[in-house]
Structures are given as C-alpha cells and as structure tokens.
Amino acid sequence: MALSRRKALRGAAGTFILASASPIALAADKVYHIGITLPLTGADAEAAHLILHGAQLAIKLANQSGELGDIRLEPMILNNATATAGQYDPAQAATNARKLAGTRTVLANVGPEMSGSGKAMAPILSMANLATITPSSTAPDITNPAYAGEFDPGGKPIYFRTVTTDAYQGPNMANFYAEVLKVKSVYILDDSGAYGVGLANAFEAQAKKKGIKVLGRDRLDPKAADYSAVLTKIAATKTASLYYGGTMQAGVKLVKQSYQIIPHVIKGGGDGILSPEMMTAAGFPAAEGWYGTNASPHVVDDPKLANWVKLYTKTYGVAPDDYAITAYDAALVAIAGIKAVQKAGKPLTAANVRDAIATVHVNGLQGPISFDKYGDMTSHIVAVFQFHQDKSAPLGDLNKQMRYVGVAPQH
Amino acid sequence: MTGMAVFLQQLVNGLSLGAMYALLALGFTLVYGILELINFAHFNVFMVGAFVGLIVLQWFGLQGQAVVLHGAPLVLSLLAALAVTMVTSGVLGVAIERYTLRPMRNVRGPMAMITTIGVSYILFNVVLLLTNAQALNYPDPMPSIDYHLGGVTIRLKAVIIWIVAAVLMWGLNLFVRRSRLGKAMRAVAQDAEAARMMGVEVDQVVMIAFFAGSALAGAAGMIFGLYYNFTQYSIGYTAGLRAFTAAVLGGIGNVPGAMVGGLLIGLIETIGSQYIAAKWADVIIFSILILTLVFRPAGLLGAQAPNRS
Amino acid sequence: MKRLALLSPRQRQALFAALLMVLLLLPFLGIGQANIDVAANSCAYAALALGLNIVVGFTGLLDLGYAAFFAIGAYAYGILNSFQLHPHWSAAWAPLAAIGFVAKLGAGAAATVHFTFPFWLMLPASAVIAACFGMAFGAPTLRLKGDYLAIVTLGFGEIVPIVARNWSSLTNGAEGLNGVGPPVLFGYRFGINATPYYYVGLGLVLLLLFISLRLKPSRIGRAWMAVREDEIAASAMGVHTTRLKLLAFAMGAGFAGMTGTFYIAKLQTATPDMFDLPVSIMVLVMIVLGGLASVWGAILGAVLLELLQAWFLPALSGWVQGLGNAIHSPFLQNLELTSASELIFGIILVTMMLYRRDGLVPVGRNEVRLSYEQQDAAVSRGAAPAVARLRAGLAEATADARPAALEIRDLTVKFGGLTALKSVSLDVPPGSIVAVIGPNGSGKSTLFNSITGLVKPSAGVVRFAGRDLLGLRPDQVLRAGVARTFQNIRLFPNLTVMENVLIGQHTHLSSGAAGAVLGLPRVRAEEREAREFVLELLAMFGNRLVPRIDQGVAQLSYANRRRVEIARALASRPRLLMLDEPTAGMNPAESLELAEQIAAFRDFGLTVLLVEHKLDVVTRLADNVIVLDHGEKLAEGRADEVRRNEAVIEAYIGRGVVDA
C-alpha cells in the first residue's frame, strides 16, 4: 500500500507540473469554470465523448474570440460513470454535483447526459443556485412543477435543456406513426431502464389518444440474448408496427432478431437507437428501415453548419452527431449567461449566471433557444430519421447511414 | 398464427436455446463432478470463445452479413473456426486450472470459489475494456434458409446448431463412458484419493476435464455468435446463469442431467415468456434454481448430493 | 501490519483515539464537499463490509447476493418516505399524521397521503425488516452446503433488483424513487450539505464496529467461527449450527438494511441498478482484501477500494492523460483508468486468494513465543484436583437424573448396499469404562457416529440415561450429556487452544448476542469463569498446553492436539465421554500417561466408552471389552478373556493362525 501512496503522490505532482507546463499557461486572465458532467466511461462513453467535444468547442471558440473580456473559461470535466455501475452512477453524479457546488469559480454546468444522473444532481444544484444545461437528458419529471419539491427545493429552476423532453419525443413519434405512417396497431417494448420505460410510457399514452390500437406492452431484459420468445408473441398478434423505448444494449439484439421474426413490421424507437452501434453491431440488413427520433431538430446536415461540422471533425477527429450540436448550444447558453452578467456589471457568481440564463435568448446551431419558466426549451421539435444503408460511406458514420425524414407532428 | 402454431414455434425456439445451454452446462458439470468446485470462470470462457470465433471468421474474410457461403467452403471454414475456438478455449481453461485453481485444491471453504469469481471478473473486464463495451456484429456465412412446417418456422441455422450440439454431446458422453480417460475421470469424481492410489494421475485427469469442459464452452460461444449474429462482453453472464440453473436442475455432476436440464431451461424460458411475461423470465429461472437446491439438491437425474461439508 | 500487532494495547488504543480525532474533524480540514461526500460513501461501504464480514468471515457462509439486503433497506425507507405511495386521505390517517409518519398533501377530496416515516425510526426498522427477509430466505437454504448456498444467495441477489424493477407501483420501477426525504434532526432538515451525512455514516460505522468487536470474542462469535471451521465438530460440541447460521445471516442482513436506509437518505433517490451483482462482489472484494474475519480488515478494505475508485484511479488517469498531452500520444490522452476498477477487483480477488489468503490484516496472532525454558521444560503432569468444577458439575448432573447408562439394542446401519453395523447390542454401565476393539472397517466409528447423531441407523435403539438418542441432532446429543472426540481429530484449525476448549462449553454458557454486545456484568463474569475452567482442564495435562493457551491448534503436535480435543469434550461437562482412538499417534509413554488420566476420569463419575487399538491401554482401562468385526459383535468380556478368544484372533490375523 505504501507503494501506491507513493505512486499517487507522484501522480499528483506530475499532473500539477504538466498542467502548468501546458501551452495555455497561467496568464493574467481570471479563470472561471464551466462544469461538464458526463458518463465518460462505460456503456454510454462514445456518445458522451461526442457531447463533451461539442461543449469544449464552444468554450474554446469563446475564449479565442475575445468576447469574454478579461476572463477565461475552462471546462471542469467530471465523470458521472463508475465501473461498478458500468454506466452512469447517480451516486457519482451527486458527488460531482457537490464538487461543482463547492467550487466558487464554477459558474454553470453542461450536462448530465442521462436523466438518472440528473435526478440525483438537480436537488444539489438547486440548493446551490448553480445552473446546468443538459444537451440530452429527456426525462420530463425533473422540470415538472408537480415534482418541484423533490428536484428543485431551492425554488428557482436550474435544470435547463437544449433538447426537448420525452414528454414530446414519445408522443410526437406516436403522432408520426398515426399521421405519417398511418399504422393502425402497435406493440410497444421497453428495455426496463429508466429512460426507456419513461419514453415508452409517453408513446403509449399518446398512441392510444390517436386511436392506434396498442396490442401489447412488454419488457426486454438488456442482459438476455434471446428475444425470440417475445418476438414470436408479437408476431402472433399480427401487429402493423413496433415501438421500442430503450438503448442499444437491448436494441442490438432486438433489431437483429426482429429482422428474422417480424421482418414486415414497421419498427421505430427513440433517440436511444440513434447510435453507431445500429450499424456496427446490429448491422444491415437488420437495421434497414428502422425509424428513430432525436429530441432536437436535425441540423447536422444543414449546409449552413457545414463549416462547423468541418471544424469539429478536424479538432476532435470524429464526426459530430445531433447531440454534439445540442451540447454546443448548451455551452453557448452558459457563455451567453456569463456575458449577460458581465454586461450588467454584476459580480460573476453562479447565482447571477443562473438568473441570466433563465431569461436568455441565444442563437444556437439548432436555431433560437430560450427557456420556459421551468427550464425546458420553448421549442419542442422532434426530428425523425430512418436507417438506410449507404454503401459508399463508412459503416460507422451515423449521419450517412440514416436519412432525415422530417419533423414529427406536434400538437 | 394459431395458438398451437405459436406454442410449437416457442417449442422450436426453446430447443435451440436449450441446445446452447446444454453445451454450456455440460462443461460446467464436468468440472463440478470432479472437483466439486463451482467454476464461475466457465461462463466467461464461453464469452471469450465467441470472440475467438469472431476473430477467426473475420480472418477468413467473413464480415458481417455480407458474405454467404455454400457447400464445402462453408463447412470447412466453420469447422476450422470451431476447431481453433475449441482448442483456444480449452487451453484457456487449462491455464486457469493450472495457475489459479490447483494451488487452491486443498484449501477448505469458499476460497476456491472466490478465486473463480476473481478469474471470471478478470476475463469479463479485459474483454469489456478491449471492446469498449460495444456489441460486435458476427459473421453470418450460413445461407438463411427457413423451413416451414405448418405455421412453424425452423431456420437452417437452428438445425445446424442442433446437429453440432448433439454431436458434441454424444462425443463427450462416449468419451466419459467408454474411454480410459473418461473412466479415470469418473473414478476421480467418486473418490480422488482412491483413484490416486489406483495409479490415476489426478492432476492430469483434472486438466483434461478442464480442457474438455472449456472447449465445449468455447464451442457454445461460437455457436452463440453464429446463431444470434452478435457478441458482447456481457453474454457470459446471462447465458451463464441459465446454464448454471440447467446443470443444477439436471443434477450437478451428472452428464446426461446437464443435457436434459439445458433443454428444459430453454423451453421454460420461451414458454414462460410467451404465456407469462418476458420480464419475469429471470425470476422464474432463479426461483427454479433456488427451489431445486432446497427441495431436491440432487436434481432430476442426480443420484445423491455430495456429502462433503 | 505485524508491527501493529506488536504495539501494546495501550498504544493501540492511543492510535485508535488519534484516528478517531482525525475522522471527527475531517469536514473541517478543508477537503471540500465532494470529498466529504466520498468519505460518507466510504462509511456506507465500510458498514456493508462489516456486515458481510459477519456472514462470510466469521461464519464462513459465502453470500454472493448481499446487495439484496442493501436494496431492501433502501427501498423500505424510500417507499415509506417519498411520494411514491399516495393513497387517498381519510380520517384514519390522522393519528399517523399526528406523530409525523405521514402528511396530508393537497386539500379537500383530492387530498392524498404523503409518507414521511422518520429516518431515525427507519434506521433500526430497516435493519429489522432486512433481518426478517434474511431469516425468511435463510431458513430453508442455510442448511445447504457451501457452494450451493453461494449460488442460492446469488440468485436471491438477482431477484431482488428485478422485482424492484418490475413492481412499478411500489417502487416506480426502473425510473427509481423520487423525492426520498432526508433525515430531520430536532427540526434541522438535512439539506444537500454532505457533512451531516458524513457524521451519520461515521456513527453507523462506529456502531457496527462496536457490535462486531464485541461479538467476535463472545460465545456467539466463537460458535460462528466453530461453524466456519468445522461444522461437524461444532455440532458435536453442542452448537446448533443452523440457528447460528441463521443468526449470522440475519445480522448481516440487518447491517446491510440499515446501511441501505442511510445511503438512500443521502442520495434521495433509489434505482434498481444501484443494487446489482457488481455491488455484492465489490463488498466481497473489500473483505477479502482486508482479511476475512478481521473486523479492522473489513474497514480497511472498504476504505482502500473507495479511495482506489474515487481518488487514486482518477488521479492516475489525469497524470497519464497529462503525459499523453505532453508526448502527443492519443492513446494515452484518452486513457480512462477508472473503468479498469472492476478489472482490478478481479485481480485483487485472485492474487489475495493465491498469495495472501489471510488478507492485509491477518486475524492470526497465533504465534506464541514460548521462552526457551518453556520449550525445554520437562513435561509434567498436572494434578487432578483442579477439575473440581468438573466433578461438581457431574455430581449436579447426576443428582436428579437417571443413572448414566448407555444402552444399545439391535443397532443396524446400512449405507446403500453395505451393512456397516448389524444388530449390535451393548451396555455401558454408569461409571465404567468400556472399550470397543476390532479390525479396520469393523464399524467402530460408525457405531460412534450413530450414537452421536451423525449417521442415521436403519434399526435399533440407543438410550442414554433413559433418554432415546436416535433422531437427535449431534448438538442435542451433547446436551443430553454425551461428548465425543474424533478418530482423525476435529479441532477448529484457525482458532487457539483456549478458543477450542471454550467452544466445548457452549451449552453451559448462556450469553447471547445481545448480552455480548451490551457487555453485561453477568456475561463478563461468565466468560471469566469459563476461561478459568479451561485453564483448570488444561492443567490436567501439565505444562504441555497451558503455556500454549493462545497458540493456534494447527501448530501443535499431534499428541497435544489430541489432548486439546479431549479437554474440549470434557469442557462440555458430559456424563458419558466417547473417545475414538485417543492414543493414536502417541508413543508408549504418552499412551500410558493418557490411559492413567482416563482412568482418573472414572474417579469423578464419568462414564467412558472408547475405541482403542493398543492392547495395553485397553487392558489397563477397560472394565469390559467389546469386539466388533464386519459390523457384528464378535465377543465381549474382560480384556484378557477377549485376547485369548479364537474368533477374535482370527478376525485380526486371519484364518489358519491360532496363537495362544
């Protein structure tokens, strides 16, 4: 054990030395921090890194442009995942939230990615009046005024989103199924996870309202390998369509096996299936034809953003996805809040920045962004995509292997 | 589909699942019979086997679902991959026994089992880190021919799996019953001391049991990959618990028992999912495990539960 | 760690006091809220490790599903103090509202009940609830042997989170409980500040530590360790193994339940994912690292693993990434070592098991340094008067009970097709010494095992002091006054001489877990007397064992181990002492010495039944000799008669050789 203590001390010393030796030396600028809390290891790591780079890019550009005056912003990157959980860990997220709340130079936070972390972080951030802007957490409960006592004990909203919630993602897709795909029946599956269950529930409620017959609702075990039993059951119902709320852990197997057992059923899911794993693990032809949604408008292919996409790809070596864009926008919101406080001449504290963010209007990559009084984005656009193999593009390039279909009907 | 057709279809599904669980349970029960040791690492050897198979098949140029073979190239490439997988897994199993379990052979209590948990964790996490927790697409060189019998769909793949599993199981049974080494294994299972006194090289026998069991696990892994067309670091875990229940249900240490248990669990899983609900499948299977151990520890075909405390 | 053991008790106490000071002042040392949070989490894990240590370390029950009880405690509090359950308000709820267990939410007809069971009440309540689940689960399963038990607990550990996930109406399923209320102390509502939670956690650990430390050297703790070391011997010494296993299991469950409530109150949310298998395994790794059965080791293991995950690995990652930035290596720049912690756990398990099974804080302090004089001293025999207690105890037992006569009629034992004993009948009159002899395989040990309840006969009657012994458990047989030793010595290997013999007194001591924890004067007096009795018993063997009182029995010579076993049997104050080959492995001088001592037993009223091979010992001791061959009684009579019996000689030597 003495060995590891020595090693750790060396490590701490080394980090300190190297940090000081880094090119961005400690200048005369005052340094403030924007927290970035994401599950950087485990099951969601790949997606989390795309989000991370989106936020980092915004901060970097803001520093370079000189619009921040005499201060400099640095990201404070904290990992919300633990190895024991194998993915995001609410306890770790809470610890990170405490760290943010306890660091005076942290003015705002970008994150979390997953709503499970959000639920743990929200009360802590609320008491500290520290705003967080999430690019991808879609569980509606956190900003629902009915649960304000649990998630917002401080009284002022701190959970802002540059993405819309499952309160819209699920139901808008149901609208899409009813009005665009014109299906008469659906069978709904979830992956027993917090996100998937919530999304599937929201879809189910709206589907029933739109007159689609819900022929059944079942649950997949993400750890199991064989869904043939459930799929055979679904086949027997002769359903016209299938909706899956959940992530790719169960999704990979579902996509492959449903291709075998219910090939002619129309299939769709939420943003959980909009992942490179659709191609690399599930693969074509199984993934062909699956619909998916994103809780934000689809802009990554917008020619107006081509330069931005090029810059991102060049800086980080990987192509951005739609959540990288919402992350960039989230960081923009934070930066805009900080600038507003500077302009008003008030001291740079987390509380002041929060107040500024609540009333901010930002022109983000996805368009104009502003928040309602609970912290949700005022725009509720849900984009629909369909997977379609493009043999000329690399298999893992999500943007090339799926087609943008349009905006899901919203009511 | 009519009610009967649905039932039959689930039966077919269950048999395919069951064949795989049976293979996995067999290897596990072999080791338990000899050492009275629950080897948790067995199920991650299965997982490693799936990845080895993937690597070999990809080396042959079979990528994803794009390449389909027929006839001789199909059979030869599959056999070659299976052979490599089985040998690699067997060697892995022997290494585990030799370096981590043999020193524990005379230690009482739960220590040896804890060691296998550790080895299992190591295998699991090494693969997790190497693959970044992502699932990988498995080559699918078999033509997708389906046979339809009265509303029930049987895939060619399923048939091939049944055949391979049956051949392997029959081979193992033959080996255990007829060959000298097999007899030696059964002797050691009954009474290691006596066997040693009769001139049986116990260490060698244990190694062979581990090799055979692990090779079967590796084969089951490759079969898994070919059947489900994917592999991931986590496949050992769920398949493992089910195969484990199968071994216990059939009678732990009992070779035919493992086969029967495997098929039964496969059927229970599919029929249970159909008529109860998929979300309770795990609970049903674990309850079977617990109830079997409490009320009939010898399992369905087992003779008598070992008395060693 | 060895250096620690060499410190005097005073120095150790001072060290502990200093450590406690540091821990109490930790939040004021300026380490930051996040680190206090980590410290509070470490307290939770330390508490879990202490609980699992009782189950795995003390009692040897491998529990792979420990997190299930953690979950049960968490959800118990979570459900009773959150918005999850909201039945309609009615007047019936008013009394509960008056004492603060529920609150009325909303008004008028739409009013619902908000459960607000207080944290401080739920702490012990969850312990009880989890313990009940532990007992319900353990009752049918704890009699399974070790590996089966592990599997069954694994299954249970899997089922609980699945039920939590599927039973949405009760637990809100996968989305987890929302709005779990924090603790309220005298009106002060714990907020998001981690410091009060840290103190609660610290208090929890100190409480559980105290309980563990008190239990370990107590009668219950010894009995647990006896069960772990050798269940058969423990049972033969009067330990009701199933009940003790259940107690250990329930207690471990209770610790986990209490910790679950604490953890959830701090997090204010609970999801089923928080209680999966990796959590159970992590706690197991903690106690393996620290040292199975070591109380301090459990805490050390928990702290080390938490520090590993929360501080060491992230710091190392940061350093490696900094290095990567400096040398422009993208591989190093992106290396995240925190995801390797599970791999490290596996490596810890394997390396500890292979190279340091005792863990970092080994329990053994079994190396007693005898002085040169002690080692070199001529062996001496002790005087018999020291066993006055034994004599008095026997007199008391005999006073109003039937005479200590052993009657066996037509005892038949079959193992499958083999008949080990065929219609054997014999009598052991009170106060006599009867020897059973016979060639190997004649059924002598089977006879012993049948009498003491280890083997179930298929026919026959065994009566002692008028009481029917057949069908009794071994510990019940001991309580009836019959104690035994084993042919191949079954001592508790990792325990000391003193502890081994103390366990013999299990049935004569009465302190339970509660008494031990509270340290009642009655319990302390009992322990003192028990130890004195042990010393008296061992004095019978002179200076052979008394200087070695605190030595692990595994290091004693074969003859000394035999003596300890006999002392242990005597410690149970039996009326009938059954010795299975007591002089095996002793040289002629030692054998005769022991024979004299056994003869002396008869002087204070003990009845002895022994199996022996050495004819001179038999001749010296036995009033009556019974010869068994192939499970049947071949002959009976005085020693010299039996020696000359032709059938007996044939049985030993073979047909055709007759010697006078």
TrEMBL record, chain A:
Matching PROSITE patterns: TAT (PS51318)
Question: Source organism lineage?
Answer: Bacteria, Pseudomonadati, Pseudomonadota, Alphaproteobacteria, Acetobacterales
InterPro entries named among the record's database cross-references: Leu-bd, Peripla_BP_I, TAT_signal
Question: Which species does this protein come from?
Answer: Acidiphilium cryptum (strain JF-5)
Write down what this protein is called.
Answer: Amino acid/amide ABC transporter substrate-binding protein, HAAT family
- Name the Pfam families on file: Peripla_BP_6
Q: Does the keyword Signal apply?
A: yes
Annotated SUPFAM superfamilies: Periplasmic binding protein-like I
Record's keyword terms, sorted: Signal
Domain Leucine-binding protein, residue spans: 33-388
Q: What does the similarity note say?
A: Belongs to the leucine-binding protein family.
Q: What superkingdom does the record give?
A: Bacteria
Q: Where is the signal peptide?
A: 1-27
TrEMBL record, chain B:
Gene Ontology biological process terms, A to Z:
D-alanine transmembrane transport; L-alanine transport; L-isoleucine import across plasma membrane
- Single annotated GO MF: L-leucine transmembrane transporter activity
Q: Which InterPro entries match?
A: ABC_transp_permease, BCAA_transport_permease
The membrane spanning regions, by residue number, are: 12-35, 42-62, 74-96, 117-136, 156-176, 205-228, 248-268, 280-299
What is one cellular component GO term in this UniProt entry? plasma membrane
- How does it sit in the bilayer? Multi-pass membrane protein
Q: Which keywords annotate this record?
A: Amino-acid transport, Cell inner membrane, Cell membrane, Membrane, Transmembrane, Transmembrane helix, Transport
Q: Which CDD domains match?
A: TM_PBP1_LivH_like
The record's subcellular locations are: Cell membrane
Q: Which family does it belong to?
A: Belongs to the binding-protein-dependent transport system permease family. LivHM subfamily.
What is the protein's given name?
Answer: Amino acid/amide ABC transporter membrane protein 1, HAAT family
